[in-house]
Prior knowledge:
Blueprint lengths: L1 E3 L1 H4 L4 E2 L9 E6 L11 E7 L15 E7 L1 E6 L3 E6 L5 E6 L8 E5 L4 E4 L1
Antiparallel strand pairs: 1-10, 2-9, 3-8, 3-10, 4-7, 4-9, 5-8, 6-7
Amino acid sequence: MASYTGIELSGAGTPIEALSSATSHTFTFTFPAELTGSQKEAYFTLEATRSAAGFYDGAAVVPGTFSNEDKVNTLVTSSYIASYVITGSGASFDYQPDTTIPVSGAFLRTTGNVSLVIS
């Protein structure tokens, strides 16, 4: 189980730990307790790592099966990015990648000081 704080996920984001293609991974989001109502909305992206020149290396690391979405709205999914709007604490979805994502093979980013646990 991996956990990431809102600080780790903001700005440039943070590299992901390895995700196995043989496992369904649950992503669960938590907002700071002091936020209420419409303040509990954020953006989340799972994005393939880019080269030093800013280009994707052509490896499709994001494709897979996204399911059991709760309090999330899908914005976009492609071969290199999945993007969601998170609409409240406890928001979650399951993700099973088509291929194993290696350590640092993708970056996680959010807005709104949202924390994330992947189990």
